[in-house]
Design goal:
The complex is a heterodimer of chains A (about 290) and B (about 375). Chain A has about 290 residues and is α+β, with helices and mostly antiparallel strands. Chain B is mainly α and about 375 residues long. Chain B has 14 helices and no strands. Classes of the chains: A alpha+beta (about 290), B mainly alpha (about 375). Chains A and B meet through helix 3, helix 4 and strand 4 of A and helix 6 of B.
């Protein structure tokens, strides 16, 4: 009985990115572009108008040579769960039900044909993971033949974002059904960025499955903890080197970052100068 | 009554055709935007709402400001406002028309706009905003039009109108409250995430709306045979004085909370707006002029001698309208997006086509306002003739 219960437990797909391994090469961005038919313009110099489902940010520790250090932070959609599963900032505000939270997989979807382009979700997203099609996507002559047939291209005037390569999940699920399996295997569903990373910095899988590598690195807390502000933190990592971006907002993202450097972990949220990131869960420590 | 809007002198028709020309130009630019997509605007990944939404927010305030004549007249039985209530209501109609149009021109797929109503989403504040805005438009149309028609016929307005009048008063508060809720519930946007945002919006609304109404009253008195009245203008001026004081007070409350608490994501937006951040300072001059205009507005409206002098009062009203427009139209929306939650700074400025479309929408509002006021004045002149 108990075993069956765990089998039917819903999945929470997520990833952990090792920032100490990331070299900032941008292979994840390129892989994402071609996998998901992400449109680009002839002139891509103005990055504010670019569409990048996966974007690599560069930060440094602000110190002078020889103490200067650089860190690259790849940023896909963070697939927020919110204060309770499904209360993502973007899903809450969408007036067209064009973005939805799957309780089955924990993936935040985007339904292009419903979106009417009000861009409320972009205002709501704290991570700038959402992109608007400011122009009509035009592919260079002949390139339309090379587009991925599994992902629909988007039209002008709608918002799009990283889907954790959801089409790959669908293919993996079909494969599992065909093989009379109930569950999708870890190796059968991996995102394009994960596979493209030459440093092996990205680990993707089911955060709820103790057998998956992502679970073993992140060690997510099964219990919901409350921070000092009374905000519920779901899946708080019990690995001291793992953090999430703007974790104190309580968006409860499913993209975790790993770094042994404290200044990197501190860059993940807005801290006042002398604050230690560890203090955030002071209450939790007491027990 | 509509026929009254089609009788006018040469200056009236020149004004109307001037507006139509501006509307035509704005519409042509909008067609271009439809063809090209929103890339012709200055908006980007970081500042995904710009000039359109900023003007929308400001005009919601002007519309809500109309209640400042409706409330004293109907709830406190302040008889003097009876003469100008309909002017407040019609100003609200013109403002709401512009609000709805600003939302429409901001959409990426305007042909799908009706999905807001066809597939309701009670989880989204935008859904409620659509309801309250359209509701307020219809309430003002029903109340304003029927009350004016009754006045023309020399009878008391119909009894069934009463409930609509009473509903319209809290409804006016609701339009600006819901509009503030659009912004202030978003995590990661420290500048907007404040419980005082709705009260701040309302205070600037109750300053800007009545200030515009004073200017309209003065204009009507100087150009027609209908005098909205000295007492009425003075009462409105007192409302403006209180509201603009409260507005600046609220702003200072925000500054205190942000800087005393030392919370970076709340401080940085204010730093960016008033002092510039990391060398980005395109709004600094605007924000300080807004502060100067609002403070001068306070001095001129609080001081009895300058308030009672209609010439200085008019100057004060222009200053307050400009000051609150910069504060809300330029600072409020851009300021919330810059710096972004990841603390990058990407500034925003509207492009020329964007400004052209904005002017077109304002011209539509001015046209609606002109025609409605023409009807009001026609009726009032008939009554007093």
């Amino acid at each position: 009985m108990k075993q069956e219960h765990t089998q039917h437990r819903s999945k929470r797909y997520g990833m952990v990115i090792d920032l100490d391994k990331c070299t900032g090469c941008g292979a994840c961005m390129v892989a994402c572009f071609s996998e998901n038919n992400v449109p680009f313009k002839k002139d891509e110099t103005d990055k504010r108008l670019s569409i990048t489902w996966m974007k690599v940010y560069r930060i440094d520790n602000g110190r002078d040579f020889p103490n200067n250090q650089v860190c690259y932070i790849p940023r896909p959609c963070q697939h927020c769960a919110g204060q309770h599963e499904g209360h993502s900032p973007c899903v809450s505000v969408c007036p067209a039900t064009a973005t939805d939270y799957s309780r089955e997989t924990g993936i935040v979807s985007q339904i292009y044909t419903r979106c009417f382009g009000c861009r409320y979700c972009m205002g709501a997203c704290p991570y700038h993971a959402r992109y608007f099609n400011w122009w009509d996507p035009v592919w260079p002559e002949g390139m339309e033949k090379y587009l991925s047939p599994n992902v629909s291209p988007r039209m002008r005037g709608v918002v799009e974002k990283c889907s954790f390569c959801f089409h790959r999940y669908q293919l993996a699920r079909d494969k599992a059904y065909a093989n009379r399996r109930k569950d999708v295997k870890e190796a059968d569903y991996q995102t394009a960025c994960t596979q493209a990373c030459p440093a092996g910095a990205i680990t993707f899988g089911d955060l709820n499955n103790p057998g998956h590598a992502v679970h073993q690195i992140v060690k997510p807390n099964d219990h919901v903890v409350k921070n000092k502000a009374g905000i519920s933190i779901i899946g708080k990592s019990q690995n001291p080197n793992v953090f999430r971006m703007l974790e104190r907002l309580g968006t409860n993202t499913k993209v975790y970052y790993l770094s042994s450097r404290e200044w990197v972990r501190k860059a993940g949220d807005n801290y006042i100068a002398d604050e230690k990131p560890e203090d955030m869960f002071a209450e939790q420590k007491k027990h | 009554m509509l026929e009254l809007a089609f009788k006018g002198k040469k200056t009236y028709w020149t004004w109307i055709f001037g507006l139509l020309a501006a509307i035509g130009a704005g519409f042509a630019l909008y067609i271009w935007q439809i063809n090209q997509g929103l890339m012709i605007t200055g908006m980007s990944r970081d500042v995904s709402w710009g000039f359109y939404i900023a003007n929308f927010t400001y005009l919601v305030g002007v519309a809500a400001g109309g209640v400042m004549v409706v409330l004293p007249y109907y709830l406190h039985n302040y008889k003097a406002y009876g003469k100008i209530t309909v002017m407040g209501e019609f100003m609200a109609i013109a403002s709401i028309v512009m609000c709805v149009l600003f939302i429409l021109v901001d959409l990426g797929q305007p042909t799908r706009a009706l999905n807001v109503m066809l597939y309701p989403t009670p989880n989204s504040v935008l859904f409620y905003d659509a309801i309250v805005l359209n509701g307020y438009l219809f309430l003002n149309l029903i109340v304003g039009w029927n009350a004016l028609e009754a006045e023309r016929n020399g009878v008391h307005y119909q009894k069934w109108l009463k409930p609509f009048i009473y509903i319209s008063i809290p409804w006016a508060i609701s339009i600006h409250t819901v509009t503030a809720y659009l912004y202030c519930g978003l995590p990661g946007r420290g500048f907007w995430m404040t419980a005082i945002l709705a009260p701040r919006f309302l205070s600037s609304a109750f300053a800007a709306g009545p200030a515009l109404l004073i200017l309209l009253c003065l204009f009507v008195r100087n150009t027609t045979n209908f005098d909205p009245g000295k007492e009425q203008i003075q009462s409105l001026a007192k409302t403006v004085a209180y509201a603009i004081c409260i507005n600046v007070f609220f702003l200072l409350c925000e500054v205190f909370v942000a800087f005393y608490s030392n919370i970076p994501e709340h401080m940085d937006h204010i730093k960016y707006l008033f002092f510039g951040l990391h060398g980005h300072a395109s709004l600094v001059i605007w924000m300080w002029s807004s502060m100067a205009l609002m403070v001068l507005g306070i001095i001129l409206t609080v001081n009895p001698s300058t308030r009672k002098n209609e010439a200085t009062l008019a100057v004060a009203c222009v200053m307050i309208i400009a000051g609150t427009w910069i504060d809300k139209g330029l600072g409020m929306i851009s300021g919330g997006f810059v710096p972004n939650p990841l603390h990058e700074i990407n500034e925003y400025a509207p492009t020329l086509p964007e400004i052209g479309i904005t002017i077109g929408v304002y011209a539509i509002g001015a046209l609606v306002l002109t025609m409605l006021y023409k009807i009001v004045i026609g009726v009032k002149e008939e009554a007093h003739a």
